[in-house]
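R.M. (postdoc): so does anyone remember the format we settled on? I'll just put the structure tokens first.
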């Protein structure tokens, strides 16, 4: 593993904290100026303690807060070895997190809603906030953060109080703040696959009013996959970060917090396995002279994680940012300001044919600069009426470039797939031409016959040459803002009604400069003019159409860049969202009903296959998403635990479907997608040394209307092949179908045994079980190849010395080595083949922690 160099960053800005802090009912109060922005919660080790949350930006117990929110404590994160947001789904079953083709592309899904993976032009429907700062792009890592206070998952649209891209929910990560007492910790983790994680954080005062926390991490691990072509491991870890956090409390009513961070990821990611090798992939694997004789992944042994790539995939991410927060308590109200600037550079290279043959490779580079500003004013909360008003602004510049090039074996591949010139065609040609085409491929015959009319076309050297293909540079500049307000009125001691409204506005300006150099894809196979000149049939699409990998079915057989006469390159939208809620305190049980709406702005398709409006369904843009939620819930707190239940119906009109079709992304709006279901969370400690938790989610989703889903070759009923043209319809109707990737049942449970071995040494034993019912992972791959669920067991054993302040944790994830698929897609440029992503294998290790 490579040594990782860390570069320190120290920065300053103005920001604000939450108007109300999280506090533990039994541990005393905390100054309002030490709270973190956005939704907060504090979860206690003792199940009898109240869990205090401010998910509505008001301090309430989890029993009283009238929304569906899941809280993961720092203790659970440590004991369960939750290393990133992907692991978080093991304790929050309504949350699904996917990372497929690149480290920097992470997709968050709550209650089945979420999109954007792999296409940087599409923003997620679930907003991620770290210490109050919105992260427009995230690598989903938690290891590069210092001590984490808590993680909250807010389910359902949050557009009324949060600024951007929270139409399906929000994830809020809160880290521990600088302290005015000296302290810190050092963590060292070693595990299988050569894992080594070193983390350190130290905090203390610089003066009576200034405290600081300095943190750093190094995270390294060998790869889970083995590339049999290059003998390199893939899906490894090589990450590092530094962070400086400064807190200034000049007066009792003023607090300023400044955070600067720098992180870097340099990894070989991401590995894929073959699910089915169709005729094209079989030709790649066949020995010469029947094929290319290249290594190909074996679908029968996909869980061995042996892959065949002639080029190992690489990813590099450099992220840095500065944020500040200011909180001022004026007595009658609390003022909050949050300011942040982030700069992220993602780059990577991939063997996109996913075989050992040198057919095609891809290089990507994306630079994203983001500035955000939020300002809030909240009432002091005295009396039956309380209110909050605020505004949020986001400015982002995105510059992305993707280059796909053909490799040295692309011509042999195309020749083989096109087949040899039929004897009947050779016999129909004049005798002097027959020897030139005998034993040749149809691609060569095409070039040869065209060259008779067009001398610039050279047989064997015009089509499918190394270095040809497509370059797709895009820019995307966006400005968005929201103005929001919410008010609570306590009608009686037991009944509280809430109303909220937000105005959201979004403007995106994009440019494209796509260049296609694949000469064969530029050719109109349905009307080859040189053939007509020779008196030969001019429609060759049925025989050769599958070899047009780019824009083959587009009207002009090439990209149309914008802005142009018909497209301004500007996408605007605005929306008013609102909520109405009533909560009633019955004593041991609280109940609530709510109605809320959410909105996500329109999106640009920044993939190599984006088309002008109404061009074969592969959209240039998508209209906004509009979400409506009806929810009712019960929350009960009792001696030793709690129980929460939420029942809901959630609709999304204009769902931005972002299906990968094998050469690009088909961005289209579904008419309407809905989901009905319920969520239940519980924790119970019947005796002091035993705690059990459980969470279950039931989802019943449906495409109420989806008339323009992209066609796929395995659905021969709705996508029949036209024998005359060799083409399939552009769309199929999925109305009434169950959306892919949404399990009907998701369940997680844990049990923890605690025991004091001596007066100084204590121990715990924790076991977890995560379950998700089988589901077709994506609509673009056949159900028989991509229907999988989850049965996962994790365990940990911990020892703590109170006097030495030393912890030792033995942990294992995927204890039973459950093998499952987490994603799938049509193999690039290999019609009829399918590729997928498998889950992580069993990992285990030990973590030593020294606190001081």
């Amino acid at each position: 593993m490579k040594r990782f160099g860390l570069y320190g960053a120290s920065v300053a800005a103005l920001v604000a904290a939450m108007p109300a802090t999280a506090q533990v009912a039994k541990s005393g109060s905390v100054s309002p100026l030490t709270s973190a922005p956005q939704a907060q919660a504090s979860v206690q080790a003792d199940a009898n303690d109240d869990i205090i949350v401010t998910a509505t930006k008001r301090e309430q117990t989890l029993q009283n807060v009238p929304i569906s929110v899941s809280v993961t404590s720092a203790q659970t994160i440590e004991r369960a070895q939750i290393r990133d947001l992907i692991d978080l789904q093991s304790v929050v079953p309504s949350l699904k997190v996917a990372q497929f083709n690149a480290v920097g592309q992470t997709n968050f899904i709550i209650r089945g809603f979420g999109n954007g993976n792999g296409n940087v032009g599409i923003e997620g429907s679930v907003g991620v906030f770290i210490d109050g700062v919105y992260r427009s792009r995230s690598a989903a890592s938690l290891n590069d953060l210092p001590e984490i206070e808590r993680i909250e998952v807010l389910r359902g649209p949050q557009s009324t109080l949060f600024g951007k891209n929270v139409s399906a929910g929000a994830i809020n990560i809160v880290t521990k703040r600088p302290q005015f007492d000296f302290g810190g910790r050092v963590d060292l983790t070693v595990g299988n696959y050569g894992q080594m994680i070193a983390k350190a954080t130290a905090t203390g005062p610089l003066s009576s009013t200034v405290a600081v926390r300095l943190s750093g991490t190094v995270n390294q691990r060998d790869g889970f996959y083995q590339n049999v072509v290059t003998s390199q491991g893939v899906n490894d870890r090589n990450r590092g970060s530094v962070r400086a956090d400064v807190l200034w409390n000049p007066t009792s009513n003023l607090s300023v917090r400044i955070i600067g961070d720098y992180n870097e990821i340099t990894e070989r990611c991401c590995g894929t396995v073959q699910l089915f090798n169709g005729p094209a992939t079989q030709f790649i694997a066949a020995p010469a002279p029947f094929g290319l004789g290249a290594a190909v992944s074996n679908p029968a042994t996909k869980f061995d994680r042996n892959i065949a790539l002639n080029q190992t995939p690489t990813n590099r991410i450099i992220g840095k940012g500065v944020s500040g927060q200011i909180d001022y308590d004026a007595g009658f109200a609390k003022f909050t300001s949050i300011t942040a600037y982030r700069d992220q550079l993602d780059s990577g290279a991939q063997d996109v044919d996913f075989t050992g043959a040198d057919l095609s490779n891809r290089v990507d580079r994306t630079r994203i600069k983001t500035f955000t500003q939020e300002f809030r004013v909240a009432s002091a909360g005295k009396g039956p009426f309380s209110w909050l008003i605020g505004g949020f602004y986001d400015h982002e510049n995105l510059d992305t470039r993707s280059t796909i090039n053909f490799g040295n074996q692309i011509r042999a591949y195309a020749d083989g797939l096109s087949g040899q010139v039929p004897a009947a065609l050779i016999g129909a040609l004049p005798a002097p031409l027959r020897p030139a085409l005998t034993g040749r491929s149809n691609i060569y015959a095409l070039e040869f016959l065209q060259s008779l009319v067009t001398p610039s076309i050279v047989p064997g050297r015009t089509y499918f040459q190394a270095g040809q293909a497509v370059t797709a540079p895009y820019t995307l500049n966006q400005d968005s803002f929201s103005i929001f307000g919410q008010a609570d009125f306590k009608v009686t001691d037991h009944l509280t009604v809430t109303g909220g409204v937000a105005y959201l506005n979004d403007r995106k300006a994009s440019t494209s400069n796509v260049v296609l150099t694949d000469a064969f894809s530029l050719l109109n196979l349905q009307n080859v003019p040189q053939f007509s000149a020779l008196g030969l049939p001019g429609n060759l699409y049925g025989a050769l159409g599958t070899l047009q990998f780019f824009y083959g079915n587009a009207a002009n057989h090439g990209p149309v860049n914008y802005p142009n006469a018909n497209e301004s390159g500007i996408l605007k939208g605005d929306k008013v969202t609102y909520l109405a809620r009533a909560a009633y305190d019955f004593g041991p049980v609280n109940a609530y009903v709510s109605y809320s709406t959410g909105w996500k702005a329109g999106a640009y398709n920044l993939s190599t296959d984006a088309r002008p409006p109404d061009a074969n369904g592969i959209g240039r843009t998508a209209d906004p998403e509009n979400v409506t939620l009806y929810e009712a819930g019960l929350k009960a707190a009792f001696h030793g635990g709690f129980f929460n239940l939420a029942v809901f119906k959630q609709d999304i009109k204009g769902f931005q479907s972002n299906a990968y079709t094998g050469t690009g992304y088909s961005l289209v709006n579904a008419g309407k997608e809905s989901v009905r279901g319920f969520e239940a969370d519980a924790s119970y400690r019947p005796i002091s040394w035993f705690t059990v938790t459980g969470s279950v989610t039931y989802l019943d989703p449906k495409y109420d209307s989806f008339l323009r889903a992209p066609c796929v070759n395995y659905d021969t009923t709705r996508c029949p092949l036209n024998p005359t043209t060799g083409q399939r319809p552009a769309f199929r109707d999925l109305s009434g179908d169950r959306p892919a990737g949404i399990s009907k049942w998701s369940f997680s449970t844990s049990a923890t045994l605690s025991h004091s071995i001596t007066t100084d040494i204590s121990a715990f034993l924790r076991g977890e079980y995560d379950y998700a019912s089988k589901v077709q992972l994506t609509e673009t791959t056949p159900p028989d190849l991509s229907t999988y669920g989850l049965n996962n067991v994790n365990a940990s054993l911990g020892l703590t010395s109170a006097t030495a302040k030393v912890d030792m944790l033995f942990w294992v994830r995927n204890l039973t080595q459950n093998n499952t698929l987490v994603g799938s897609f049509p193999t690039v440029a290999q019609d009829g083949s399918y590729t997928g992503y498998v889950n992580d294998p069993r990992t285990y290790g030990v973590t030593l922690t020294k606190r001081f």
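R.M.: ...and that's the designed sequence above, right after the tokens. Also worth knowing: The chain has ten helices and 45 strands. Residues 1-48 have pLDDT under 50 and may be disordered.
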